[in-house]
Amino acid sequence: MKTYRFGIVGLGVMGREMADLLAAHPRFSVAAGFDPARPQVSFPQLPSAEAVIADPAVDAVYTATPPRVHEEVVRLAARHRKPILCEKPLAHSIASARACRDIAAEAGIPAAVNFSFAARDVALRLGYVVASGQLDHLTGISLRARFAQWPRSWQSGAGAWLAGAEEGGFTREVVSHYIFLANRLFGPGKLQKALVTRPAHGTETALVAEISHGDLVFHLDAAIGGDRDDDIRFAVTGSRGEAAIVDWQHLEFTGEAGPHYPASAPLDHLALLLDGKPNHLATLDEGLAVVELIEAMLA
């Protein structure tokens, strides 16, 4: 089977983690990367993002830069006709996210957004539960999220932009995953109301919002507080019970939740994208829809 060599732009926590995952997968390797901080990695670092993307040894691009840089990287990928996997959120503004979507579409390059729940076992199995009708009449969706601090302790290397109002905050970085999942399971959401608490400087400290998905209402309650980096519960409630994703990876449900998927499933679907085959990865249209809801809540 064909293998693909990735170039990585942005070698912070997420970039290095993806490099390790790609290197461990039989369909992928890492050919080169770029980050102005030049962290220690096991592959060549080139002097610029364009040098990485233009490198003939690079078949596809993953960008884990701060969101405001995503559009620039997408433009470079389109110019050099390289497929791109973009870290979420797609961009730091609706206009930039729309530009990313349009640029990739016009260039005809394979493109996706790296939402954790697009092809992850726990989300695929929750989708099975919802589609199976075991919950019967659906009555609501909810998200409760608490963070001991923001940025979280393991994000200290990216703290400057994660702590800034322009492109950081837990709504863009974490809540966006669950908005994506709700959109995928229940169709496009429409913001009904949002209350954001934020200091004079910095990112939000609390968010309460409601998003409608047809007749269903998605209640969101996220805030800084508690003693864990991530204390998160996303639940779908029906007349016959509830199914929930807890702390990213645990599915709470007493019924039949379908087959388990391997930990490699997200990268297996990345290979399908690059092969030109149907896959579960988040499209740039889906990424744009999430940005539209997120930025409307934070406005």
General description of the model:
The protein has nine helices and twelve strands. It is globular. The protein is of the alpha/beta class. The strands form two sheets. Strands 7-8-9-6-10-11-12 form a seven-stranded mixed sheet, covered by helices on one side. Strands 2-1-3-4-5 form a five-stranded parallel sheet, sandwiched between helices. It has helices spanning 13-24, 49-54, 70-79, 94-107, 121-132, 159-162, 170-186, 265-275, 284-298; strands at 4-9, 28-34, 60-63, 84-87, 111-114, 138-147, 190-197, 206-213, 216-224, 231-238, 241-246, 250-252.
Entry summary:
The chain has helices spanning 13-24, 49-54, 70-79, 94-107, 121-132, 159-162, 170-186, 265-275, 284-298, and strands at 4-9, 28-34, 60-63, 84-87, 111-114, 138-147, 190-197, 206-213, 216-224, 231-238, 241-246, 250-252. With 299 residues, it is α/β, with parallel strands linked by helices. Helix 3 runs parallel beside helix 4.
* Main beta-sheet strand count, sense and barrel state: 7 strands, mixed
Unreliable stretches covering 5 or more consecutive residues = none
Strand arrangement, major sheet: 7-8-9-6-10-11-12
Helix/strand class: alpha/beta
- Morphology: globular
Compute the CA-based radius of gyration.
19 Å
